Amino acid sequence: MTTGGTGGDHNATGAISKDESDRSGHGIDERPEPGQDDPKKATADKEAGLADRKAGTADKKGDGKDAAGTTDKDDAKADEGTAERDGKGHEGRADGDSKDPWASFGPAPDPVPTWYGRFGRRFGRILIHEWTLAAFGSLALAVLMTWPTLRYPRYTLPQDYWDPSLQAWQMAWSGHILLTDPAQLWHANVFFPERWSFAFSDTLLGYAPAGMIGTGPEAALVRYNIMFVLAHALATFGAYVLARQLGAGRIGSAVAGVSYTYAPWLLAQAGHLHVISNGGIPLALAMLARGHGWSLRHGYRPERRREGWVYGGWLVATWQLSLGFGVGLPFAYFLAGTVIVSVVVWYAKRIFWRVKRPFGQRLFAADVIGGLIFAGVGVLLAIPYFTVTHLHPHAERTLRDIAAFSPPLSGFVTAPTESRIWGGLHEGARSILPWHPEMTLLPGFVLYALAAGGLFFSIWKVRHRLLLLAGALVAMTLSMGTEFFGGRFTYAPLFDHLPGWAGIRTPGRLMLWATLLLGLLAAGAVGAFAERVREISAERIPSWPSPWLRLATLLPLVLVIAEGTNTTPHPVVPPQPAAMRTIDGPLLVLPSGQNHDQPVMLWSTTRFQKIVNGGSGFTPRQLDDVRRVTMAFPDQVSVDYLRTLGVHNVLVLRDRIAGTPWEISIDAPVDGLGVTREEIGSVVVFRL
To answer: Taking the model in full, what pTM does it have?
Structure first.
């Protein structure tokens, strides 16, 4: 150890000598201070010692080891270590000492991760993230709950093949025309020679990217069935993340998500994809709340503000609006009302309560820009609908039309036919409803019970429970349309004064909002129950819940899923006639009617030739005239009328004319009419 100390002195002396040597060039006295060694002498001694060691090593090179049995390699390593320590000015070790034996007990150095290792870890974290698991769980549940939608997606449609055929055509048309001639988007190939025919019903325009994939009826059916399942998955995921953002636990949020998507009343809407496609509503609300740093349980937390989430929330809301005004218009008014109330409350607290909380210019700019995008797209989408109303005044609905679809109070406890649990039991209750597909509004007895429990036992504050209850009751009242005291103080003012509200034909679909709010009440109750279970488990020794307690927390979710099971039929869609793939338009397919024409629209997706047929929320007067005049086709009057419209070909479907006038007239002579007749399979083609 003495030698090691001497080496340290040499190091220090050498460092001083070098430092003073550097300073000597600048006129600084290089004589040592009293009591210090002569630096020149120390340097000479050090160089002599190094020379002696090298000479000793050279003498022993023949046998490769010194007297202590150390190899030349070890000496070289020792010399390198000593030189390195000498250069750093640290205390040196004795010549010939081996590596510090305690170093082997130290921790191993961390391995340097490779790029693919970092990618794998990050990808793994994403896979096990809560949102990823929630998304996959929502998708798996959607496939299960909508089965057998994906069993034969090329041939069947859920519930019926009328409105779903129309909506499958809508997606196909929007994708096709945006790729070929976007300027003609609103002037579709159906309802010839009408203009703006794409705006005769909700358009599902937000699904246009899916419509760009594939052509023909089979591709349109596959596309529709996939989007049908994905719409259920998005609704579950959206309601789940909204409940989580507001402060609910995982199980409570799952109850909110499942009850929002698979409420029994929604089973009657399985044929209306624009109603099923409602997942953007809770998802946009969740993103906006997250961006503003707000939750129902914790209030406003400025440190959690994120402008990116605000932009994302407004964009998702805009996409939801593009799917249709039937669901999107109430959502737009809800957002507008929320903005107004938030601004009033914000300034009221600043003025009257002297509560000053930061908001930020960037967050304000995000709201302004996002809100303008949402409003701008809404106005652009509304222009074609106002144009259609101007061109077809009879398409505008009246309160009498609304009354035909307004459900009574009993509708809130009546399930539709498609409900596996309650469908058969409620057959008598449905029989007294004038139009039961739109009047059976049961959100679920389990949901009712959980929401009622959430009024007394919940993670939400009392005032929040009362607000959720009040919102649910308001939504249910509006869902009754004119049945609640004639709607004079509820639905009628909205119908008369809010732009676009008159276009909502079925008020019962506003039950969507009541279902969401009841689900949040239920999430509060289930969350409080789960927290109580955790408290009980923490008191146990050991701290671990029993299997029965675990199962009890899952019971509400299982019951909600069970009540949402269905018996929805999946009929086979009539196959496309071969003539539809070869005959040019404009053409008319007979027989024609609302239910007959919607599959014809689907058949036209191969070539998108112009067709007179069409089915939508209303029937243009000209199409009514065509159907009336052609009842005697082929005759001189009908042929001349169709030529006036510009129709070139008429297709009569032999397998659909039983019991109609065409059953006899289809084989009548056409001499003198200037018409040729040709049979292609089961279709008779008349060329005008």
So the answer is: 0.83
